[in-house]
Amino acid sequence: GRMDNIVLHVDDVFKSFGGLHALSDIDLQVAEGKTHAIIGPNGAGKSTLLNVCVGRLKPDSGAVVFNGSILSGRPPHEINQLGVARVFQTPEIFPDLSVLDNVVIPALAKRDGAFAIDAWKAMYSEGELKDKAATALEDVGLQEHMGQEGGSLSRGDKRRLELAMGLVQDPLLLLLDEPTAGMSRLDTNRTIELLQKFKARGMTKVIIEHDMHVVFSLADKVTVLAQGRIIAEGTPDEVRGNPAVQEAYLGG
Ligand code: ADP
Ligand code: MG
């Protein structure tokens, strides 16, 4: 409703790669505590939108505003410290470090800033962050794997590890790019349950998702992108029945 507190406002964003208009005229408002899904066919601009929100890409015009702060133009670590965490489409973990250390690092980065990673070894004896990291790993069901190298995890478990790396930061806003891609149906359902748990704790989420089962299980609101533009927005049921959405998915 109109009393909702808007946490993230994407305001008239454009982004091109050469002659390709990856994002045109994107306006998006994400309300506090809600799960906002972004769906659309491959190449629609979903990942580009997420990358603009986390500072990996600078919009050509427009702005991204988070809790009153303009994010666009800030470096990713500053955006992260403001309380925005992300889970990328391709897991970005530290393959040679233990599963536990993979989660200690983002906890430290959130607490002390990006450059604290240099001091990680010296501070490693700190129990507090390790406990926090272990709790995040329990939350995602990886407690049995804490001591093994990140790179040795299965594809689905790497995705769960990345989720723990985001959750350990207690983010105000969590952005997830296809968090269930490559997961079995069982792992997908576990991830849905996990994200529902964090929703119950009030975390605001933007989730890019291909799997409609995941969208219908989690989303309060859905924005549909096609060829860099918003073609529909509404509740999951509203967008499901929208002919323009069906056409976009059928390649019309
Ligand atoms: P989606 O995540 O919806 O599949 P993307 O945001 O990854 O789509 O891509 C949108 C469009 O922008 C695609 O046509 C893609 O090829 C193009 N694109 C994405 N990133 C780049 C880049 N860094 N350089 C050039 N083109 C890109
Ligand atoms: Mg993508």
UniProtKB/TrEMBL annotation:
Annotated organism of origin: Bauldia litoralis
Domain of life: Bacteria
Protein name as it appears in the record: Branched-chain amino acid transport system ATP-binding protein
Keywords assigned by UniProt, alphabetized: ATP-binding, Nucleotide-binding, Transport
InterPro entries on file: AAA+_ATPase, ABC_AA/LPS_Transport, ABC_transporter-like_ATP-bd, BCA_ABC_TP_C, P-loop_NTPase
Molecular function GO terms recorded: ATP binding; ATP hydrolysis activity
CC per GO annotation: plasma membrane
PANTHER family tied to this protein: CONSERVED COMPONENT OF ABC TRANSPORTER FOR NATURAL AMINO ACIDS-RELATED, HIGH-AFFINITY BRANCHED-CHAIN AMINO ACID TRANSPORT ATP-BINDING PROTEIN
Occurrences of domain ABC transporter (ranges): 8-252
